[in-house]
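REQUEST FORM: STRUCTURE PREDICTION
Request ID: SP-0412
Submitted by: Lab K.M.
Chain count: 1
Length (residues): 128
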Amino acid sequence: MPVDEPIRVIRVTRNMLAIHWSPPYDDGGYPIERYIVEKREASRSHWTQVGVCAPDVTAFCVTDLAENQVYYFRVIAETAFGFSEPLELDKPIVPRRIFGTSPAVTFWRPCSRDVVLEASRGGLETVF
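STATUS: Completed
RESULT:
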């Protein structure tokens, strides 16, 4: 009964993460009673429950995260029969401010030249 589609990150800030997932295609004949959301700091091996959602809710906002800390997240479906295999976010998440100390962010595109976005109080300027 694992959830079949990946977890999607909706929003990340310096201390919060919002995620969304899809319900499993097959619940094994038992309706889902709830979803359990867990996090794990990269430096630790223990998962911590951060919340529970009703079976019709497939989004969750994790708060009180430490800025610049590396986290992993997963969702587990629970039925009367037991628990699903965890659905894990495919990459770790690092909450941080949108604009850090560096004023430029570089994005790479395959087979193309680099694009640099210069951040300022007035907005973003594209520099080629």
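NOTES: The mean pLDDT is 80.
Reviewed by: T.R.
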